[in-house]
Automatic annotation (TrEMBL):
UniProt record similarity statement: Belongs to the PurU family.
Name of this protein: Formyltetrahydrofolate deformylase
Pfam family name, one: Formyl_trans_N
Taxonomic lineage from the root: Bacteria, Bacillati, Actinomycetota, Actinomycetes, Micrococcales
GO MF annotations, alphabetized: formyltetrahydrofolate deformylase activity
Keyword Membrane: no
Stretches assigned to the ACT domain: 12-82
Pathway involvement of the protein, from the record: Purine metabolism; IMP biosynthesis via de novo pathway; formate from 10-formyl-5,6,7,8-tetrahydrofolate: step 1/1
Listed EC numbers: 3.5.1.10
Record's keyword annotation contains Electron transport: no
Native organism: Arthrobacter flavus
Organism domain of life: Bacteria
Length: 287
């Protein structure tokens, strides 16, 4: 910690640009010029895409505008896509769920416990079963039923909740409705889904029954960004657990619940801490 007499503010810088020599040196120089103390720094050059990625945590007595003034010319010189985030600012998160409670419950508990840097202004569901859980945590619950005839109106109602609460992140916590291409394009890189299989295996509905029929020895869960193509989005986190011949498909469902909850909550935490950057159809995770 610098022994500056002035109050320190913490920021997270994330950036990407075409990989080339001198990026780290230039960024570090700009941060020093802004009186920053770098507390954490990670970078990666992707050989496949030729793109360079960086995440830097820092503290400074300088104002955000002074920091941005130092960074802007460097960003221009290297053609960077960059963002400066307030470190620790909770991500305004809308949770979508259907009937299964376990993933929603894990997110609510971890948020209330202070381990998940998000705030949850609202919960949306296409069913009513989870209204009591939302009430238990004192969070407004919006029941938006979805049928083939009402899908568009339902999505417009969802957009209204997103706008009303200035939502930054949408989490699909076992939300069993397919989002339209239009909504997916509006939520690129800020909608995370939990799929209850070890992708790319067993996409779509009833993955545990697909896995049981196949006779797998490991089942798992995958947290990924939502894209129009079902269960094809960039993967953020995955976890697996061993099963055996003696387990029924219903037991797979039960065994998978904790894995799903942990996997989704971890992915949401990394996203909210600005540790996940998109590299085409893949992610870079600075954890
Ligand atoms: N555009 C996307 N939307 C959603 C995705 C996604 O990857 N892209 N993931 C799903 C979650 N999911 C699996 O993880 C999933 C959800 C629903 C279905 C499905 O077939 N739903 C049927 C209706 C089922 C019902 O009403 O119970 C449907 O929507 O017609 C498959 C996979 C969330 N959305």
């Amino acid at each position: 910690m610098t022994d500056s007499p002035f109050p320190q503010t913490s920021f997270i810088l994330t950036l990407s640009c075409a990989d080339q020599p001198g990026i780290v040196h230039a960024v570090a120089g700009a941060l020093v010029n802004a009186g920053c103390n770098i507390t954490e720094s990670q970078q990666y050059g992707s050989p496949d895409t030729g793109t360079f990625f960086m995440r830097v945590a820092m503290s400074t007595a300088a104002a955000r505008t002074a920091l941005e003034a130092q960074l802007a010319p460097v960003a221009t010189a290297f053609g960077m896509t960059w963002a400066l985030h307030d470190d620790g600012a909770p991500a305004r998160t809308l949770i979508l769920a259907s009937k299964a409670a376990h993933c929603l419950n894990d997110l609510l508990f971890q948020q209330r416990s202070g381990t998940l840097p998000i705030e949850i202004p609202a919960i949306v569901s296409n069913h009513t079963e989870l209204a009591d859980l939302a009430a238990f945590y004192g969070i407004p619950f919006h029941h938006i039923p979805v049928t083939p005839d009402t899908r568009e109106a339902a999505e417009d109602a969802l957009r209204a909740v997103i706008a009303e609460h200035n939502i930054e992140l949408v989490v699909l916590a076992r939300y069993m409705q397919i989002l339209s291409d239009g909504l997916c394009s509006e939520l690129v890189g800020r909608a995370i889904n939990i799929h209850h299989s070890f992708l790319p295996s067993f996409k779509g509905a009833r993955p545990y029954h697909q896995a049981h029929t196949r006779g797998v020895k490991l089942i798992g869960a995958t947290a990924h960004y939502v894209t129009p193509a079902l269960d094809e989005g960039p993967i953020i986190e995955q976890e697996v657990i061993r099963v055996d011949h003696a387990r029924s498909a219903e037991q797979f469902v039960a065994i998978g619940r904790d894995v799903e909850g942990r996997t989704l909550t971890q992915a949401v935490q990394w996203h909210a801490e600005h540790r996940v950057l998109l590299d085409g159809g893949r992610t870079i995770v600075f954890n």
